[in-house]
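Form 7-S
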Amino acid sequence: MKIDGIPYRSVWVEPSDGWSIRIFDQTKLPWSLDILRLTEVGQVAQAIRSMQVRGAPLIGAVAAYGVALALRKDASTERLEQVVAELGETRPTAINLRWALARMRAALHNLPAGDRVAAAYAEAAAICDDDAETCRRIGEHGLPLIESAAKDRERVNVLTHCNAGWIATVDWGTALAPIYMAHDAGLPVHVWVDETRPRNQGAALTAWELGKHGVPHTIIADNAGGHLMQHGQVDLVIVGTDRVTRNGDVANKIGTYLKALAAHDNGVPFWVALPHSTLDMSVGDGVAEIPIEERSGTEVTDLTGRTADGRIETIRVAAEGSAAANPAFDVTPARLVTGLITERGRCAASEAGLRALYPEKG
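Output:
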């Protein structure tokens, strides 16, 4: 995708040295476009924990490069096992992280130590290329949903929650890929962008990248979606996901479940876009089995923004002395999901639907 006409991916190897890694610092968006240089695995782990890099597919790709950075200093089998375990603990909910690390381990474990560094960079690059192509295909399979909704309408209103665009993947995005393709095809698509409290990934990131691409959009408060649906102002909902179980339950940013309930009550199609790396066929009951990350309460009590004179400041908005809980994700049961958009096509949010597209998953 492009920023001000310049093409980017969300992670890349620094061309000048051929080994360090570059990412955008997503905690600085939309106020400034800061590019970080990562030179050691500790920096990668911190970037993932602090959400300088975020988005289920992207943290997997960046973690893969983290393995490569670690092996530059010590390519032993012991270090390989150690770094895979360390990086796997940085975020608990998104399964893409463990998928990418398992793929790196499988590719490197049986190689001689002297061959591992080059192979690690090659495998991490392959993971990135796979994600970019996967997301492009998700866009192709989701585009017909918007095309169908556009018939006899002056504007197609799509609601999305959190950020599942190219800044959350290596390129294109998941939920936003069909929207970008619809816009580029000349369809009159407009996006309702949930602010997505408490970190405001919608207002800060989704709105930023849609704006950079020229896609018409409007930021709304998280609780406005149901109202818009009641008044016929939402044609379909498309969200991303951090983990999908074998029966089609969907873990996504906190608040997604409430959007699905509102969509179900108002007859609005609720679609979930996901790559193969987000599938977790080992889990049956998403509500009972998916671990939900609990983040710092300060994300709820404090807000960061730009003041009128241009300074970036963090302020407290909650009453002093009040405790704050901050579950980062919730699980939407499959019964509320209209269908899944994957790189292999669309399917029902069910075990039968998923196994029809992914028979090799067992």
